[in-house]
Amino acid sequence: MSWRDSLRTKLMLWFGLLVGVLLLLGFVAAFLIARQLIIAGAQERTRYEAAQTAARLHASMESVRITGASMIGIFDNLALDREATIKTLQALLDADASTVGGLIALEPGVLPDGAPMAYYVGVERRGVADRDLIALGYNVAQQPWYRRTLSADKPWWSEPYFNETAGGHWMTTLNLPLRGRHGARLGMVSLDVPIARWSDLVQPLHRIRGQRPALFAPGGTIALHADPKAALKTTLDGYIAVAGRSDLQDMSAARAQGRRFAFTHVLPTTGETRYSVLEPIADTGWALQVSMSHKPLLAELKRTIVRLALIAVLALLLCALLVRRMAARITTPLSDLTGSASHFADGEFDYPLHQTDRRDEVGVMARAFDNARGSIKRQMVEIQDMSTARQKLESELDIAREIQLAMLPGARVLGTDGWRLQANARLEPAKAVGGDFYSFFERDSHTLWFAIGDVSDKGVPAALFMARTMTVLEIAAGLGGSPEIALKEAAQRLLEGNDTCMFATVLCGLIDARSGEFALASAGHEPPALLGADGSARFIELPSGPPLGVAVAEHYPIWRGRLRSGDALVAYTDGVTEAFDAEQRPFGNERLLASLRGTAEPGTLCGNLVADVHRFAAGAAQSDDITVLSLHWSGGGDDASGMRAALHFLAPQDRARLPDVFASVEAALAEAGVERERIGDVRLIVEEVMCNAIDYGGQSGGHEVSLELGIGRDRVDLLFRDDGRPFDPLAQAPPDLDADVQDRPLGGLGLYLIRSLADEAAYAREGRYNVLRIVLLRPDAGE
Asked: Which sequence ranges form a coiled-coil region, renumbered to this chain (predicted)?
């Protein structure tokens, strides 16, 4: 045995795979937990650092504000002159570590001398000198920042600007309005703070790896930023637009609203994940952003995981080697048994078998092999006997199939020079033998009996019941009579001794080969289809009785019709419509009608339909027997009067639905070009006869009332059938039309109207049917 197929190799690999998966899951879980803890700790630290740095910045800015407010308070309370004002401001600036200079500008008339004042006091030790702006010709009163300060209600910080006169540094200025006791605008005090001062306060944030601060002025100018192209060169909104930093848009909105904002975002340019905190600096308008990158936080964690993974792989390899050594001690006896089993596979059942004396599982297996060896020998003998018996059974089933198929009749052709009737059928059982059948034989030279059926089972039992059903039907049909009588006789015979409760659905009928007229009766079978000479196809709405073998029905309704020249009648079993494809979709009625719209020659029609069923199933197993029977009639066309094939109408049991039948009759007459006058006469006769038959037929629970309508060039034939009590409407006495209405008995007027409108009328009782034939001549019949 190859080492690749060895059990010890598989044990080692499976053990290694299991341990490896567990280790991998452990590493993944540990990594995710550690990652979450590290990120959460870093975020907490970032929020803390942002709050602390914002507090330091606020303290420095507050000291500047206090310096300015002190200057205003001193000036307001002591009414200083020009020199005292300058000295006071110098003293305050020296005491404030954040400022490098300050400006005091006063309106005319504020000082005792009445002159305006605009004097900039610089802190000399910080490299900034004093300047008298009025003496230098600088008009402070016209500057926008001066006018804004005079109208302001509180101090405000300016945007960063580059101040060349103050040592060439970037500055920001706190501007404070100076008001009199009664609110008069006296001037302003402004204090300059280098941006470097804020940078020094923010500097500790750079010491943490991956952490970056940014400082935004009240107007959105970026005062401090890690990107030198952004610091002191653009606003936050401008940076977002130019650098494509859409991840900062929500933060920019929060800064404009002066609210705290913390969020995790991904840089669109690099894909780097960061956690940022925006911390407003009290109500100064300044805001501090502290951003922490995830990448350096997780780098050390990843390195630690990789080192641990390498150690785990080495330990896994060592364990796998130990497992292989242990598995070798277990699998060596199994290898011995495997060698013996290979000889068994070659048919060497007498090959020596070792390990049978062991007391462990290997010994149990060896003894089981030994017992199996003897059992296999015995079973091989039994299999040989069963194979012989099966061959004999298959041979007998083949013979039974041939006998069953031999029972079925071959194609039939009846005809003379004036008419021709062809009959053909095809049967394909789902098993060797089946339960479907068909039959046709000539009662005389022009009458053909035909039948098709489906037994409720398959295989040999169905074949036996099928043979019995065929025999009973043919005997009953040979005795003469209608298809109804044949079905009733067969139902009685099949019910006797039917302990297996099998049954058969049957469609049988008679057809007159001279005229194409036929009669059908159904015992629970599928309705046949009528294929017109014009290629149309439709189902016949045939009433049905119960299947044969279940019960004996009181009667099986007969449906009568006539084939026109070129028409075909097609009967089939449910093996056609219920053939399923691989997706369990049935062949169905629509596909059946579509398949019939082609040739009407019976042999070709049956073959094409069966072939279409097989193509639809596309290799799926045949679930039921398939049987098709077809009759094709061709004659001399219309008779001398141009009479067309009879149209069949069946009255519904619900009297309220009779108008639908009357409308269908009128539509057929109109389509055939019958005169409007005659259509009205036909409507009156049909309504009177059908309503009387339904209302006074004497049948409880409803009964059969039908009409066959024939339309010719010179006449309209009406043939009514009903299974009610015997009644001859033509034999009734006519009403006395001269008598008064109140003295005239009810009824009789409708029958009188029928006799008055009819050109010909005849009544007969045929079996259990009343048959009334009425002929109406068309107006141009005599021309």
From this structure: 376-403
DSSP code, position 548: B
- Percentage of the chain exceeding pLDDT 70: 87
The phi, psi pair for 729, rounded to 5°, reads -70, -20
- Of 751 and 288, more confident: 288
Domain-ending residue, one of 634, 660, 687 = 634
pLDDT on residue 746: 44
- H or E element: which one contains 634? strand 626-634
Query: Residue 47 falls within a domain, yes or no?
Result: yes
**Residue 609 contacts residue 576 (beta carbons within 8 Å):** yes
**Which CATH number characterizes residue 566's domain?**
3.60.40.10
Residues in a beta bridge with 317? none
Highest mean pLDDT among 22-31, 137-146, 467-476: 137-146
The vertex-606 CA angle with 603 and 610, nearest 5°, equals: 140
Number of separate domains in the chain: 3
Task: Tell me how far apart the alpha carbons of residues 476 and 716 are, in angstroms, rounded to a whole number.
Answer: 36
- Contact yes or no for 86/101 (Cβ under 8 A): no
**Average pLDDT score over residue span 459-475:** 83
State the residue range of the domain holding 623: 408-634
Q: Which of 528, 427, 443, 430 is nearest to 486 (CA)?
A: 443
Helix H or strand E segment including 437: strand 436-442
Length of the chain: 783
d(CA 736, CA 743): 10
Domain assignment present for residue 403? The answer is no
Of residues 197, 158, 154, the one with CA closest to residue 176: 154
Rounded to whole angstroms, how far apart are CA atoms 227 and 223?
11
Q: Is residue 641 part of a domain?
A: no
pLDDT band (50, 70, 90) for residue 346: low
Q: Is residue 179 part of a domain?
A: yes
